[in-house]
Design goal:
The protein is α/β, with parallel strands linked by helices. Helices cover 31% and strands 16% of the residues. It has 16 helices and 20 strands. It starts with 7 loop residues before the first helix and ends with a strand. Residues 1-35 have low confidence and may be disordered.
């Protein structure tokens, strides 16, 4: 049904009065009656819409379209014709912040919707125009240009100056519950009602795409609301978020020790030393470590050299062009797992270390991506309490989590809390892990309804551990059986790619096309290729299914995927 099936008086009144009529009249026209859809009329009606709480699957006080606008660009290519709705979902607790969401509706709709996930602590509506690692060749509007309706939210709070590191909303229970996952269902239901009313038909397909916190959200919708989704894409997912926070605390305490925090220059030396040891382990010197497992087993900063000189400072004391013993000890903490003496409330017993050897911890370079890489890694000043925004991303995250989520004491010294022996805070931490660790590995309901899952992670991520995603995949196969998992899911690793950005290998992959083809035609992804936009712009590598990795065949253009094969460890 299109809105043209409705009489003019019905098109223009609020949704609360006409929702039942919309569904009752859904058969008045075929799905192919696109010629009768009036975009301008639908856009005008959208500005007056409300969604009652009764149509939202989790408790709210209803939703309201607060304003609409026509997206345009001040310079460059103009976006395809569309209307953007700004929506507020009212909380149950009058003291809780609302959920702010955006809904982008193209004039030329393909019948499908995409929900995009957030990042960090969220707090802002994410861009509705693109998605993680979207191909640069698709331009600035890859979702709109393909006809997708798109929506996303701030997950139920509005960030301050700290942006995605602002955890101050953690003082409110409803805001914490929304951030932990409840907002996903609320936003999805509101979008479904508004999209259905706007176009006069329900979406044919519903997809979710996100990275980091958005990757956790992608796995959350597949785990918790499998019947709502046809496919999800989870890039570098922080699925066990609270366990990761505890690892952040352990790492922060390590680098807060005297002489433990390396400078930008020292971090660059460390990466160069690791490349000298590990770059050729994949058969070619290309500035990318592809055989990460071998590198992790072979590289030792205490005995490594760089440019013919020992990486470790003589006597172990800090100097500008080497690493002190305190730095090496802290780096080994970063590289190793945190283990809990008793299982957390979520059941987790550990969080793994990170692939830091050869990865970008933050350094100086002329790359336009370098400031983002530095911010998402170790930044420019050591951990402290309260943590300044110049401290490592993970140190600020820990500081905010302890002060606002755990203790709810803004003056609490986060570095004084031992994540492996939290004392009086143990039960509160257990409660938070039950909310924030999205660790179910039984996706049977999602699989049986035809849902498809694509997961991907860069092997050089120093903010969300690649090893944690490997653990989730291994658990998925253990729970459901490898053949069953192969029927609906894939997991890929991208050597050299960091967290959302990298100067060494900045990944582009048309994951949405791969997912859509699998869902709509049954054609599973095969021979996928990932391209680089930064290290060597335009070079390609095979996107290898875990646990395989790309090895150079020994001949052929080193910048072409065809010159590499996916090899098992």
């Amino acid at each position: 049904m299109t809105t043209a099936c409705l009489p003019p008086w019905l098109r223009l009144i609020p949704l609360t009065a006409i929702t039942s009529a919309v569904f009752a009249l859904a058969a008045c026209g075929s799905d192919d009656d696109n010629h009768s859809f009036n975009f301008d009329d639908a856009s005008q009606a959208l500005a007056r819409q409300q969604v009652p709480a009764s149509q939202i699957g989790l408790p709210t006080s209803g939703a309201t379209v607060t304003s609409t606008e026509t997206p345009s660009a001040t310079t460059g290519t103009q976006p395809p014709i569309s209307v953007l709705a700004h929506i507020s979902i009212a909380p149950v607790d009058p003291g809780a912040p609302p959920i702010k969401m955006g809904l982008l509706l193209p004039k030329e709709w393909n019948g499908k919707v995409v929900m995009v996930g957030g990042g960090g602590y969220n707090g802002v509506v994410p861009s509705l125009y693109s998605y993680p690692a979207a191909p640069a060749s698709q331009g600035a509007y890859p979702l709109l240009s393909q006809g997708y309706a798109v929506f996303g939210s701030d997950s139920g709070h509005q960030a301050g100056a700290a942006g995605s590191r602002d955890g101050s909303f953690g003082m409110n229970d409803e805001a914490v519950t929304n951030f932990s996952g409840a907002a996903l269902k609320k936003v999805s239901d509101v979008a479904d009602v508004l999209v259905t009313h706007f176009y006069g038909k329900k979406p044919d397909r519903r997809y979710f795409i996100g990275g980091s916190t958005g990757g956790r959200e992608a796995l959350a919708v597949a785990q918790k609301w499998p019947s709502d989704w046809d496919g999800v894409i989870a890039w570098y997912p922080a699925w066990n978020a609270a366990s990761l926070d505890l690892q952040f605390g352990r790492i922060s305490r390590a680098f807060a020790q005297p002489d433990a925090y390396p400078s930008l220059g020292q971090r660059k030396l460390l990466r160069q030393a690791a490349l000298e040891t590990c770059d050729a382990l994949d058969g070619v010197l290309d500035g990318v470590i592809s055989n990460m497992a071998a590198c992790n087993s072979q590289f030792d900063p205490a005995t490594a050299s760089v440019n013919g000189q020992p990486l470790r400072c003589a006597g172990g004391t800090s100097q500008d062009h080497c690493l002190s013993d305190a730095m090496i000890e802290a780096l080994q903490t970063y590289n190793s797992a945190i283990r809990f003496s008793t299982p957390l409330g979520s059941g987790e017993t550990q969080y793994p270390g990170f692939n830091i050897w050869g990865s970008e911890l933050g350094e100086e370079s002329s790359s336009p991506l370098q400031p983002t890489v530095n911010l998402l890694a170790m930044n420019t000043t050591p951990p402290a309490s309260p943590a300044p925004l110049t401290a490592p991303y993970w140190a600020v995250f820990w500081d905010q989590w302890v002060r606002y989520f755990v203790t709810r004491d803004t003056s609490f010294d986060a570095l004084s809390l031992d994540p492996q022996d939290p004392g009086v805070w143990a039960e509160r931490i257990n409660e938070l892990t039950r909310l924030q660790d999205i660790n179910s590995t039984d996706l049977t309901a999602f699989s049986q309804r035809g849902g498809k899952l694509l997961m991907a992670h860069g092997t050089a991520d120093v903010l969300v551990s690649t090893r944690a995603t490997e653990q989730y995949w291994q658990r998925l196969e253990q729970t459901m059986g490898a053949p069953a998992v192969k029927g609906f899911a894939r997991y890929y690793e991208v050597p050299g790619y960091g967290h959302a950005a990298s100067t060494a290998f900045n990944a582009n992959w048309d994951s949405l096309h791969a997912l859509d083809q699998w869902v709509t035609t049954g054609s599973a992804p095969s021979a996928q290729v990932v391209s680089d936009t930064a290290g060597v712009p335009g070079r390609t590598r095979p996107l290898c299914e875990y646990p395989t990795w790309p090895r150079y065949k020994g001949s052929g253009d080193v910048n072409l995927a065809d010159s590499f094969s996916c090899q098992s460890y």
